[in-house]
Amino acid sequence: MKLVPDTSAVIDGRVSERIADGSYKEATVLVPEAVVGELESQANAGYDSGWNGLEELQKLTGFADEGTIELEYVGRRASGSEQAGASEGDVDAIIRDVAEDHEATLLSSDIVQSEVAKAKGLSVEYVEPEVQSDQDLPIAQFFDDETMSVHLKTDTKPKAKRGALSGMSYKTIDETVTSDEQMDEWADDIEALARTSREGFVELSEPGMTIVQYQDYRIAVARPPFADGIEITAVRPIVKTTLDDYEFADDLRDRLLERQRGVLISGAPGAGKSTFAQAVAEFLNDNDYAVKTMEKPRDLQVGPEITQYTALAGDMAKTADSLLLVRPDYTIYDEVRKTEDFSVFADMRLAGVGMVGVVHATRAIDALQRLVGRVELGMIPQVVDTVVYIEAGEVHTVYDVTTEVKVPEGLTAEDLARPVIQISDFETGTPAYEIYTFNRQVVTVPLKDGESQDTGVDRIAKQEIEREIRSVARGHVAVDLKGQNNAVVYVEEDDISYVIGKGGGRITDIEDRLGIDIDVRTLDERPGSPKPSGSGGEELQPAGEVVQPEITARHVVIRLDEHVGETVEVQADNEYLFTATVGRGGDIQISRGSAIAEELEDAIDRKQQITVSTA
Hints:
Layout: E1 2-5, H1 7-12, H2 14-20, E2 28-32, H3 33-44, H4 48-66, E3 70-74, H5 80-84, H6 90-101, E4 105-108, H7 111-119, E5 124-126, E6 147-153, E7 159-162, E8 169-172, H8 180-196, E9 200-206, E10 209-214, E11 217-222, E12 231-235, H9 249-258, E13 262-267, H10 273-286, E14 291-295, E15 307-309, H11 316-326, E16 330-334, H12 339-350, E17 354-360, H13 364-369, H14 380-383, E18 386-391, E19 394-406, E20 418-425, E21 431-438, E22 441-448, E23 451-452, H15 456-470, E24 477-481, E25 486-491, H16 496-500, H17 505-514, E26 517-522, E27 545-546, E28 550-551, E29 555-559, E30 567-572, E31 575-581, E32 587-591, H18 595-605, E33 610-614
Helix pairs in contact: 3-4, 11-12
Domain PIN: 1-115
GO molecular function: RNA binding
Organism: Halohasta litchfieldiae
């Protein structure tokens, strides 16, 4: 018997398997050089499939040395262009030619290769993949009723996130360190199960990363060279809810049924966003709305009436084009992260489709701000009119998003009226934030009890005035606001002429740009304010904690380890520079080249004292 195995049969180890059970005793195995070349190419690229195939060839050599089979390498290697066209069948065609030339039986576990060979009149033996039981998920033992995710990696102890959504913890669940061999076996079994089970499918298959969906498990398998070791992360929902389980259920039901809406469901990873999105999808479907989903990967646990779509040819924009032909009433978009995702979300919403998007955010307002710069500001309320923030599995905050032409809170002059996006508390109707443009910049101003915070708008106006004056002044600049339409600018005496300009032309241009009247005076005339350090007057006393910013290649960094999560003001010689929130790493990082970074570096160069105080 003459046998020609193709690449799939060699990688799967099906040749040695059948030799060992006696099926191919004394057979002549003809291995095409095209198969060797393909395996060598995959192994050189670091793919496990290539190494598995080469290991199989070594087993065949062992059988040949024992006299169990005869082994020959025949045919030609595929050219570079044929290797590049392997996915189009170029290498498979060479292998079929070898089988035909030697009048041999082709062995394959590739159904397409087998069917093409049969059509060409070749003798074919198709090796059916072993279909595993639906209960054969190899890592199922790590899950219990409170396990949301399991995290496995070579040379580490298995860990899991367990507990209720309100108290999830990341803990070691087994003291046995996993070996590379064990991880490789689990990874292979998971991928095989997804390909063969009726309840599983491969969502993504790229060199080094495979994502599968099996039942309600979403499993990511990372391998070298993409990862530094084999890693398996399996996630599943631990609860399934209905809309009735959440606060504001009645109001949210009425809002969703009133007309097609644009909704952002936001929250931190693991907060329960997808669980809430599933509840919304089921509610809409039960109320006779045509509901579809857009997911990559598809892991929402919804009923069979809701069709789940993934990225068509890797592009969600193509999926959206297809969905517009299907004409859904609502589409659940999980997850909206990149600029192209927001663009697709906005296009579908403006086309009249109700959209519910799942977005990562640490605050409800952050979800909406992710649209700024990606969607024209005035169109945001048409794209998103409701923001739902989920925390610990519960609805924490709901915002209503509208737009109105008005004077922003804290300003009074009628000529400052502009389109303002109002973000209001859904339950009480109390405004919480306003978003609008101020001097060509988009600003988000938090409101308190319906009014702007004491110095919120003033700080923005002051910052803009200081920027304009510092662009022409060489020395110290200070600004005092005198109402909403007037300001006094104090500069060094030598800078007066530069700031005012010939015939007052320069300061007039600045006034026109800012829409505010400016009176220019010397620093000596500033009432109740000491002179800056080095000017011959008394030293400024720091109003806050003195810091020493660090200038790196890409950032200006201010360390504030004791103020994580707090909003602080940064000042130079008691003059306001900017407001920022201290990150989780205990620092503020300002990108170099930005206007704020340039002001801060300029203050450092002038040896001004940099201080921070709680805003």
